[in-house]
Amino acid sequence: MHVELLLETSPGADRDQLQRLLRAIGLDPLPMKVGIVLSAEVEVLRKLLPGLSGTETGELSVPDELKNAVRSIRIFKPRSFHST
């Protein structure tokens, strides 16, 4: 199952260091104005959020190792595109 996460960064957070950390665990962070977007299979995202099932929606708990840089984590269902 593929999901998207938005990591809202805290004011003054070292976003470059956060991106390096995310890359080190095999994720591909996409920087955005309010934070970082992660888009991956649930199994890959479990490296960051071990309890992730993929059925969650809304706000998730921020892991202790990210609390200095991340204010909140929100999960979104991936968009689907249909051809007509």
What characteristics describe this protein?
alpha+beta; Alpha-Beta Plaits; 84 residues; 17% helix; single chain; five-stranded antiparallel β-sheet; 5 strands
What does this structure look like?
The protein has one domain: Alpha-Beta Plaits, CATH 3.30.70. It is built from two helices and five strands, in the order βαββαββ. A hairpin with a 3-residue loop joins β2 (30-31) and β3. It is α+β, with helices and mostly antiparallel strands and 84 residues long. The protein is 17% helix and 32% strand. It is globular and about 30 Å long. It has a five-stranded antiparallel β-sheet with strand order 2-3-1-5-4.
Layout of helices and strands, plus pairs?
Blueprint (H helix, E strand, L loop, with lengths): L1 E8 L5 H10 L5 E2 L3 E7 H4 L12 E3 L9 E7 L8
Estimate nothing, just give the exact number of structural domains: 1
Assign the CATH class.
Alpha Beta
Q: Taking all residues together, what is the mean pLDDT? A: 89
Query: What is Rg?
Result: 13 Å
Kindly report the spatial arrangement of strands forming the biggest sheet.
2-3-1-5-4
Q: Please give the alpha-carbon distance between the first and last residues.
A: 24 Å
Q: Please trace the helix and strand order, writing H or E for each element.
A: EHEEHEE
Named CATH architecture? 2-Layer Sandwich
CATH topology assignment: Alpha-Beta Plaits
Counting DSSP H or I runs of 4 or more residues, the number of helices is: 2
- Model regions low in confidence, pLDDT < 50 over at least 5 residues: none
Name the beta content range.
Answer: 25-35%
